[in-house]
From TrEMBL, chains A, B:
Lineage of the species this protein comes from: Bacteria, Pseudomonadati, Acidobacteriota, Terriglobia, Terriglobales
Organism this protein belongs to: Tunturiibacter gelidiferens
A GO term, aspect molecular function: DNA-binding transcription factor activity
Domain of life assignment: Bacteria
The keyword Lyase belongs to this UniProt entry's keyword annotation: no
Pfam families: TetR_C_15, TetR_N
SUPFAM superfamilies linked to this entry: Homeodomain-like
DNA-binding region: 44-63
Protein name: AcrR family transcriptional regulator
InterPro entries, per database record: Homeodomain-like_sf, HTH-type_TetR-like_transc_reg, HTH_TetR, TetR_C_15
Residue intervals of the HTH tetR-type domain: 21-81
Keyword annotations of the record: DNA-binding
Length: 221, 221
DNA sequence: TCCTAACCTGAGACTTTCTTCATCTAACCA
DNA sequence: TGGTTAGATGAAGAAAGTCTCAGGTTAGGA
């Protein structure tokens, strides 16, 4: 998953000895810590290095610039989410659509909410760091996982799995964003979680039964 | 809609004469122009002023700082979207749920896509400018519009209109974001638009017929 | 033990942009 | 027509953080 972006943003040096690998990890961890404690605006490479217990010089040995540093932290986090989704999708192969929907949504929201603050903090950084491109890659990967899972359902899916997967992903992303950006995510979580499952289930249901859907083809305004 | 945020970010001086009002408008417009042409990173207040045909000093007469400038541009754009939604919601009162869904989605996507590039450019700026807070306000307003509309349907809605509205909004936001951030929004627009309408219609349908939905209440993983 | 490569250090040079303010011009009104 | 306020100007002050580099330290193989 860790991707080589075209813009020179990858580490300058690959950790060889154990101590340097530890440094890289500490730096990435510190990045999030600092982000959480002082916010994006006041995050400086010096602060990050200091928090990681290394010097700025060391930081710049592994990250060519501040952007690469933030990008590293973002990728690390998104990898977790992608990984979590991949896992559920593998587990749920062959199940019914409803089971898939519930499992997928629960896993997704659980992962996102587990460190909600980190998610939010990283949202804010995303735009400084080509976050869209990274998110696209993740999305693509996730899309394959979900579509692949859907294709194996014991029910009969009458639509393009990729399209269906896109819808489901979009809805999940939309709800999770709304949740994370709301004043008190925990308060709303339960209601939205259940409703999202209901929402998606109804859709998948309609995508499996043979329903005349021509009536829904509406011209744009 | 133009909101007074608690952090001092509102204009220093209210335009009194016509020429100054024109300046403010030109500045806001120039902000978007510069954003589109050189991107957030290279946007400077000097460039914006120059593009607007005024001096930096003038700019700072109406915006206390760069942040307020960007925020102004963002608010202006979001106001349009909110306004568009409000309008449809008023128009669609009393209609069927399906009609509402189609009209709402079409209007929303049309507005967003009309100046897709601006939308994307402003996304990138949002995090530097307390965009979340602004978006929340808009969301709240939109939520009222949508819920209000839903409540007037000729069908019978069996769920809390606010909750239903939240779901619909989230789905729309999710899809539009996916669209705007995709490599070629236009290519996917039609397919996603139709599918989103289908998606939401099936949901609303399920929210109006009396369906036993206890089976969807699933425990979190 | 000795040597080499990997790794770490941190003061400060350098760059860049924001924002101010003293001063000038245009508009409006009596 | 003169006075007063609104509006405009742009050179330059000030701040702030990024990133380098010359030199020191540690690990591990021979």
């Amino acid at each position: 998953m860790s991707q080589r972006s075209s813009v020179m943003l990858e580490p300058r040096k690959q950790p060889v000895q154990a101590r340097s690998a530890a440094s890289v990890d500490a730096i990435l961890e510190a990045t999030i810590q600092v982000l959480l404690s002082v916010g994006k605006e006041r995050l400086t490479t010096t602060k990050v290095a200091s928090r990681a217990g290394v010097s700025v010089g060391t930081l710049y040995q592994y990250f060519p610039n501040k952007s690469a540093l933030l990008q590293g932290a973002l990728i690390r986090h998104l990898d977790e989410v992608t990984e979590a989704i991949g896992r559920v999708c593998r587990e749920q192969r062959g199940k019914t659509l409803k089971e898939m929907a519930a499992a997928l949504i629960n896993a997704f929201l659980a992962t996102k909410m587990r460190d909600a603050k980190t998610s939010v903090a990283l949202y804010s950084v995303s735009s400084d760091v080509d976050g869209v491109k990274i998110a696209q890659q993740m999305q693509l990967h996730t899309n394959k996982s979900v579509a692949g899972m859907l294709a194996t359902t014991s029910d009969t899916l009458t639509k393009d799995p990729q399209l269906v997967a896109s819808m489901v992903q979009s809805a999940m992303a939309g709800v999770s964003r709304r949740l994370l950006e709301s004043p008190e995510p925990e308060k709303q979580l339960e209601a939205l979680r259940q409703e999202l499952i209901f929402f998606v289930c109804k859709y998948l249901e309609a995508c499996s039964a043979r329903v005349p859907d021509s009536e829904f083809v509406v011209e744009p305004s």
